[in-house]
Amino acid sequence: MNERLSSQRFLALPFGIWATLFIVLPLFFVLWNGLKDVETGGFTLVHLQTVLQWEYLKALGLSVELALISTFICLVLAYPLCLILRERKESRGLLVFVLFLLPLWMNSLLTTMAWQTILEKHGLINMFLQSVGLPEVHIINTPLAIIIGMVYNFLPYMVLPLYVAINRIDSSIIEAARDLGANPYQTFRRVLLPLSMPGIVSGSTMVFIPALTTFVISALLGGNKVLLVGNIIEQEFTAAYDWQLGSALSMVLMVFIILNILLEAFTDNGEQAKKGVRP
User: What family is reported (predicted)?
Assistant: First the structure.
């Protein structure tokens, strides 16, 4: 038993070192800078109070709004896809699945720049509209452009956990619901949706967190007209060199991340508890 514990600790050592260097220490420095008084070096809440100013709250609110909208769109697109992949044959379903995972295989900066070319004033969309005699549309440097970039880049993070959750549902349960007289809507609402809820929560968390904290997508597709909290943090660290305020803003985002993680953990524990009481 002692040898087994020793071997497990030895195998976990590389990850422990990596987590300490790239997770624990960065979080410690963020907390340290966010709560440190530059003049005295002591503890202060001044930087957190600065975050409560209207311009920062406005950027935070817009970031949460766009992240929620992007998460909802990803869920609406991913759920029917996963249902189709569950019913289709493996060869055809695999092809569709790979197409939706393509953004994961490419650099997100390159794909976002590609969307910048598509959505700009003289981009492919407006060129097509002009060719058919329709008026131009202004999409670049708007919240809509940012949402399009978020959905394209983060959709695979919704598809993966949702597909796993839906694919694990026993087909006999769905057939039993149909045999008992449930129509397709009742089968979806009372069988598929509750059983796939862990995948929905996991996928929503995996989309919402990067959508909330992104700054590359909003910088390229939103320009200077749409300012999200991620852009403000990036500017505070790289342009204004105000690490204290940037760390304080990062601490606010950490609260949202922790809440999402707790929600996912609570959902997983509830699902395990249900499985434990089944006969």
Answer: Belongs to the binding-protein-dependent transport system permease family. CysTW subfamily.
